[in-house]
Design goal:
InterPro entries: Methyltransf_11, SAM-dependent_MTases_sf. By secondary structure, the protein is of the alpha/beta class. It contains 10 helices and 7 strands. It has a domain at 5-145 and 171-204 and 258-266: Vaccinia Virus protein VP39 (Rossmann fold, 3-Layer(aba) Sandwich), CATH 3.40.50. The longest helix is centred in the last third of the chain and has 18 residues, at 232-249.
């Protein structure tokens, strides 16, 4: 997936409904883990940058926080608003994480789960997150570890290759946030203090091959673009081939692992 995806609205609009319906199967453990780095009370104000369909926002609101959620995709925000209907402490809006519409020193904490990692200008994203935090506020940013280290991603790309021999597992990118040294340096360059980068691995299980395929493909912006480009008949052909492959290679309810890097820092 290109690191420019977060600067283009269309892929995220295409995937918004599928992301809302299937994304939690993989993302919910990471959203819950992110909040373990925060102390949240009824007076806490949190910003959720590139909030997607609101898993982190809703989890924080359920702990009592007042949350401002922002995402570049109107369709993502529509899904978030619908999911957050029972949480009046969540305010959601369309906007750019590289140019946040909030005043300085506004929030006690800032989150960005698997969003800032795709920004065209990550330096601006980190700087903006730091800017809107109160002194001593906590920033928590999550990015995926290399795909090759994830049995979940290897399963997905094995299925993709069965359907399309040109598909390949993404290669490690030492310039991205999957490199802990880059992650650490970019957070420090934004002025954040006491920065640390930690790994967190979650296990996910699926009842069958179809559920695995649907969960991963319907929550992937990159694959939503592929589906749109190749057309529905070809996508359905590829899906059938991929599910056939997974039916052979994946035993139902077998755990698959995937790892994220969490960057944690403190606003000066």
């Amino acid at each position: 997936m290109s690191e420019q995806l977060s600067s283009v609205v269309r892929p995220w609009d295409l995937v918004a409904q599928g992301y809302a319906e299937t994304g939690a199967a993989v993302l919910a453990p990471f959203a819950a883990h992110a909040l373990e780095y925060l102390t949240i009370g009824s007076e806490s104000e949190i910003v959720d940058v590139a909030a997607g369909t609101g898993l982190s926002s809703i989890a924080a609101a359920e702990l009592g926080a007042r949350v401002h959620a922002i995402d570049l995709s109107p369709s993502m925000i529509d899904q978030l608003v619908a999911a957050a209907a029972a949480h009046p402490t969540i305010v959601a809006q369309v906007g750019d994480g590289q140019d946040l519409p909030y005043e300085d020193n506004r929030f006690d904490a800032g989150l960005s789960l698997f969003g800032l990692m795709f920004f065209a200008d990550r330096a601006k994203g980190f700087a903006e997150l730091s800017r809107v935090l109160r002194p001593g506020g906590t920033a928590v940013v999550a990015a995926w570890a290399p795909a090759a280290e994830s049995s979940l991603m290897r399963a997905l790309f094995g299925a993709l290759t069965a359907a399309d021999p040109t598909a390949t597992l993404p290669q490690p990118d030492s310039r991205s946030l999957e490199n802990p040294r880059v992650f650490d340096a970019e957070m420090r360059a934004a002025g954040l203090l006491d920065v640390r980068i930690e790994q967190y691995t979650a296990e996910v299980r699926f009842p069958d091959a179809t559920a695995l395929w649907e969960a991963l493909t319907r929550s992937s912006a990159a694959l939503a673009v592929v589906r749109d480009e190749v057309g529905e008949p070809e996508w359905q052909r590829r899906s059938a081939a991929a599910i056939d492959h997974l039916t052979v290679t994946y035993r139902p309810n077998t755990p698959l692992r995937t790892t994220a890097l969490f960057g944690i820092g403190t606003a000066p």
